Amino acid sequence: MLLWVLGFTLLGSLGAIFCAGLFLTFPHSVRKLLTPSLMSFATGTLLAAAFLGMIPAALELAEGYQVSASVLAGIVLFFVVEKLILWRHCRDRDCDPHERAGPLILIGDAVHNFTDGVVIAAAFLTSVPLGIATAVAIIAHEIPQEVSDFAILLESGYERKKALLLNSLASLTAIPGALIAYFWLAQVNAAVPYVLAISASSFIYIAAADLIPTLQRQHNPASSVRQFIMIIIGIAIIGWVNTLA
Asked: Measuring CA to CA, how many Å separate 160 from each of 24, 25, 193, 212, 232?
């Protein structure tokens, strides 16, 4: 099981970096066209992983009220954390939270990837299909996120090779996150459903508070249809993987 955890943790971190770097080689017009589709696919995978995988798995291990309360608490927690981060780094009204300095991007990526490692380990300790579905959802979300982070690092004056190296190093924090979670949760099985519930709340929050509002800025029918189709494809893939359990 540990090899599954480490393999998909590496795939989820460095795989997303590779795909993002490859994506940046495309012409700007192509990236502009594909980005909403990637974000739509990520939305579908995140929501499906939360509602079709993590929450049902948590409900099999703990009482429904406790799981629901954990999901709700997680959503509120992520809202508060995001508010504190924005308040700390955006003190004036004109601040755009996406216009952050390079070091802040790297620190944020390191923490985020550490958490991803924890999530993947908790999912695999529940079942292999849930672990695979969770890793797919993380990869789908990380690709557009890493593209954005690469762009910010380049705008901050980093050379392309240096930006790629530093982003890759930040992604490797997923490994200690996965290892710590794997060995801790293996000893404290009672914590698994609550880690899954909190993980599900993070997926729901990312989709609802970040991705969907961005997608809703495009109003033309053609883009809306593409977004809907990609969301459904994302849901279908995660749903299919979960049926393998």
From this structure: 10, 11, 41, 30, 34
Please name which of 191, 11, 3 lies closest in space to residue 113, comparing C-alpha atoms.
11
Q: Which of 21, 23, 52, 27 is nearest to 38 (CA)?
A: 23
- CA dihedral for 79, 42, 40, 164, sign (positive or negative): positive
The predicted structure's pLDDT at residue 98: 45
Q: Where are the alpha helices (DSSP H) in the chain?
A: 2-23, 28-48, 55-61, 64-89, 102-126, 128-155, 160-171, 174-187, 192-205, 212-215, 221-242
> Which segments in the chain show pLDDT lower than 50?
91-93, 97-99
pTM of the model: 0.78
Query: Which pair of tokens denotes residue 102?
Result: 């390079």
What residue type is 62 in one-letter code?
Answer: A
Determine the Cα–Cα distance for residues 233 and 197; give it in Å rounded to an integer.
24
One-letter identity of residue 188? V
